[in-house]
């Protein structure tokens, strides 16, 4: 089942997600629905707040990035297999000199901006079987994780922009929250006059 993606301006995107346990209702179905919704929108990640749930859950499938010719064979291999569920994730450490990458977000269609992030992170999370894992991610895998992790912290990529960039996109963001946007997937708009 494909769900509408919550648009910029909805308060759920600003909430810090609550931790969940293995008794969370219909978790297996929720994960499957989130993946289906992500693929339907041609996304590489989707966090629970983006479907209206303020919980610490997100899914990632970064394999579309594996076709990037600028990547090393090692990074390409990592991205090909980077299809995971992250529950109750935490970033334990961020390392390295920040690097820039042009990011977008399913909740903020038609806006892409350069965002600076650390290249290497150490993370802790539980998978869909609630098995605890600790990993080091780098490059695009780290970046996609950081973007989705921000969602469960109530942070959007637009928060990381300079005040000038924020002023330049302010009207576009207002239009998104009012439903004045044409996305290729279903969306839920917070300020749509019915």
UniProtKB/TrEMBL annotation:
<feature type="binding site">
    <location>
        <position position="151"/>
    </location>
    <ligand>
        <name>Fe cation</name>
    </ligand>
</feature>
<keyword id="KW-0408">Iron</keyword>
<keyword id="KW-0479">Metal-binding</keyword>
<dbReference type="GO" id="GO:0046872">
    <property type="term" value="F:metal ion binding"/>
</dbReference>
<dbReference type="GO" id="GO:0006412">
    <property type="term" value="P:translation"/>
</dbReference>
<comment type="similarity">
    <text>Belongs to the polypeptide deformylase family.</text>
</comment>
<feature type="active site">
    <location>
        <position position="148"/>
    </location>
</feature>
<comment type="function">
    <text>Removes the formyl group from the N-terminal Met of newly synthesized proteins. Requires at least a dipeptide for an efficient rate of reaction. N-terminal L-methionine is a prerequisite for activity but the enzyme has broad specificity at other positions.</text>
</comment>
<dbReference type="InterPro" id="IPR023635">
    <property type="entry name" value="Peptide_deformylase"/>
</dbReference>
<feature type="binding site">
    <location>
        <position position="105"/>
    </location>
    <ligand>
        <name>Fe cation</name>
    </ligand>
</feature>
<keyword id="KW-0378">Hydrolase</keyword>
<keyword id="KW-0648">Protein biosynthesis</keyword>
<dbReference type="Pfam" id="PF01327">
    <property type="entry name" value="Pep_deformylase"/>
</dbReference>
<dbReference type="InterPro" id="IPR036821">
    <property type="entry name" value="Peptide_deformylase_sf"/>
</dbReference>
<protein>
    <recommendedName>
        <fullName>Peptide deformylase</fullName>
        <ecNumber>3.5.1.88</ecNumber>
    </recommendedName>
</protein>
<feature type="binding site">
    <location>
        <position position="147"/>
    </location>
    <ligand>
        <name>Fe cation</name>
    </ligand>
</feature>
<dbReference type="GO" id="GO:0042586">
    <property type="term" value="F:peptide deformylase activity"/>
</dbReference>
């Amino acid at each position: 089942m494909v769900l509408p993606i919550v648009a910029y301006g909805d308060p759920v995107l600003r909430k810090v997600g609550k931790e969940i346990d293995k008794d969370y209702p219909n978790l297996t179905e929720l994960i499957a629905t989130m993946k289906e919704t992500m693929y339907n929108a041609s996304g590489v990640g989707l966090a629970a707040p983006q479907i209206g749930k303020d919980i610490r859950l997100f899914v990632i499938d970064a394999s579309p990035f594996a076709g990037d010719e600028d990547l090393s064979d090692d990074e390409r291999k990592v991205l090909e297999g980077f299809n995971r569920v992250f529950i109750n994730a935490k970033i334990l450490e961020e390392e390295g000199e920040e690097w820039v990458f042009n990011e977008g977000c399913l909740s903020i269609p038609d806006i892409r901006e350069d965002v600076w992030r650390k290249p290497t992170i150490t993370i802790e999370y539980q998978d869909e079987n609630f098995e605890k894992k600790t990993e080091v991610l780098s490059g695009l895998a780290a970046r996609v994780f950081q973007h989705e992790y921000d969602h469960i912290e109530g942070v959007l990529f637009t928060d990381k922009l300079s005040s000038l960039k924020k002023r330049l996109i302010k009207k576009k963001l207002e239009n998104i929250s009012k439903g004045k946007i044409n996305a290729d997937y279903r969306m839920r708009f917070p300020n749509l006059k019915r």
